[in-house]
Write a structure and sequence with these properties.
The chain folds into two domains: about 20-50 and about 310-455, Aspartate Aminotransferase, domain 1 (Alpha-Beta Complex); about 60-310, Type I PLP-dependent aspartate aminotransferase-like (Major domain) (Aspartate Aminotransferase, domain 2). The protein is about 40% helix and about 15% strand. The longest helix is centred in the C-terminal third of the chain and has 20 residues, at about 310-330. The strands form six sheets. It has a five-stranded mixed sheet, with helices on both faces. It is built from 16 helices and 16 strands. Helix 4 (about 100-110) runs parallel beside helix 5 (about 125-130), helix 8 (about 220-230) crosses helix 9 and helix 12 (about 310-330) runs parallel beside helix 16 (about 415-430). The chain binds ligand F0G.
Length: about 450
């Protein structure tokens, strides 16, 4: 792919510091080999997440200065409502402090025990919110997603046949709403085609099921449609986005992704009746409806960011930037989920470190090795996060052991990415020395955040 230079200049910089290898070794031990437990100041290149880590533009910082902090009826709410109607076409806006708060409001009011929610692939917080209300979160992604080397352009797609069979099996009255996640984060930031969204919407409509989109990375998904789906070469990303959302009844959004802000989210929808219920819950758990979980200034920065995130030059740069890291990793012989996704690269840790068995967490071992070698922070998406256990304690590992290198938006330059690839090269040279890990502490739920490990041979 052709590179497209950053369509921005750098006006403010934030120094980062590389501590010595000895210090990194000490930090790793102190943190029990869990990168969530290391202070950000001890990290050189932080690829833990693309969420809330974007650099805001000068215009967004200017938006912060025009925040109207009135408790009721602030002008920034009016403006965000106008923006949402323009891009997403939804009538009602529920502003929340981030994506999962929108999910909480949506599912706590719609899902009851025994219900099902289909999705291409639920993100962890989406699944957790469905399950917290007694529902079953069902993933129905296409089979291509499971083949890490397949170059299928829309690996994030919903499997339409599986979806329809599933609805018939459990019955539409047990499905209060259906979803689709664009891009599909959990399987590699892979996009969903417009045709697939259209077919998904048609199936939900056929069975009278409300259709909500998890919109976190909708702008990146729109750009993938433009560049990969025949017939959209000349369409503007904003028009593709409009077409996508015209097919849905509502969406949940973490503005910390494609709206280029550090905090914020929303729920948007058309139904007047549901809006009334959601609004009451918003008042209970977040705030008055015209600011919800945010300050007026945050609402304004989101409005500005939503348009910037859809800018065609920005998206051209963004997708090429991510692709650049994939190409450099390819040169270093690093196996990763193909094709490269929108917001990051997902390395196949099982293939990269074949000498470490799954019960010794190859993904976590690679995460630790990348920090020790180069101060890089990444995240394991494998057995630490998802393994299940038999009654006798035997591990049932997930199919994939991945390490995600998420790329914050407008933050790192190509030389940072070159650096990351070169660290992988060094790790590869000393691969045999990397040891598997075992738990010294593991909480029951969401253990990846606080678990502690030590190398197996100690
Ligand atoms: N949906 C998707 C697809 C996400 O990727 C996330 C967050 C959320 C919902 C929840 O949004 O964090 O604002 O509450 N993903 C982050 C990540 C945390 O690192 O992938 P939130």
């Amino acid at each position: 792919m052709e590179l497209f230079p950053e369509p921005f200049r750098i006006k403010t910089v934030e120094p980062i510091k590389m501590i010595s290898r000895e210090e990194r070794e000490a930090e790793l031990k102190k943190a029990g080999y869990n990168l969530f437990l290391i202070d950000a100041e001890k990290i050189f290149v932080d690829l833990l997440t693309d969420s809330g880590t974007s650099a805001m533009s000068d215009k967004q910082w200017a938006s912060i200065m025009v925040g109207d902090e009135s408790y009721a009826g602030c002008r920034n709410f009016k403006n965000l409502e106008k923006t949402i109607r323009d891009i997403f076409g939804f009538k009602h806006l529920i502003p929340t402090h981030q994506g999962r708060a929108a999910e909480n409001i949506l599912f706590s009011l719609m899902v009851k025990p025994g219900d099902y929610v289909p999705n291409n692939t639920h993100f962890d917080t989406t699944r957790a919110n469905v399950e917290a209300n007694g529902g079953v979160a069902m993933d129905l992604v296409v089979d291509e997603a499971k083949d890490l080397t397949s170059q299928f352009p829309f690996k994030g797609n919903m499997d339409i046949k599986k979806l329809e069979n599933f609805i018939r099996e459990v019955g539409p009255d047990k499905i209060p709403l259906g979803m689709i996640t664009i891009t599909n984060n959990s399987i590699g930031g892979q996009p969903v085609s417009l045709d697939n969204i259209r077919q998904t919407a048609a199936v939900y409509r056929k069975y009278g099921i409300l259709f909500f989109i998890d919109a976190c990375r909708y702008a990146e998904n729109s750009y993938f449609i433009k560049t990969r789906e025949p017939g959209y070469e000349n369409a503007k990303p904003i028009d593709i986005a409009r077409e996508i959302f015209s097919m849905a009844d509502g969406c949940t959004m973490s503005a910390k992704k494609d709206a280029l802000v550090n905090i914020g989210g929303f729920l948007a929808l058309n139904s007047d009746q549901l809006f009334e219920q959601f609004k009451q819950k918003l008042i209970l758990v977040e705030g008055f409806p015209t600011y919800g979980g945010l300050a007026g200034r945050d609402l304004e920065a989101i409005s500005t960011g939503l348009y910037e995130g859809l800018d065609e030059d920005y998206l051209k740069y963004r997708i090429a930037h991510t692709r650049y890291l994939a190409d450099r990793l390819e040169e270093e012989g690093v196996p990763y989920v193909k094709p490269s996704g929108g917001h990051g690269i997902y390395v196949d840790a099982k293939a990269f470190l074949p000498h470490i068995p799954q019960e010794q967490f190859p993904g976590q071992a690679l995460v630790a090795a990348l920090y020790l070698e180069g101060g890089i922070r990444s995240v394991e998406i494998g057995s630490v996060m998802f393994a299940k256990y038999e009654a006798n304690g035997k591990i049932i590992p997930p199919a994939l052991e991945l390490v995600r290198l998420a790329i914050p938006r407008r933050v790192y330059t190509l030389s940072h990415l070159d650096y990351v690839a070169s660290v992988f090269g060094k790790v590869r040279q000393n691969m045999e020395q990397i040891k598997g890990l075992k738990f010294t502490y593991a909480p029951k739920a969401l253990r990846h955040f606080t678990a502690r490990f030590k190398p197996v041979e100690e």
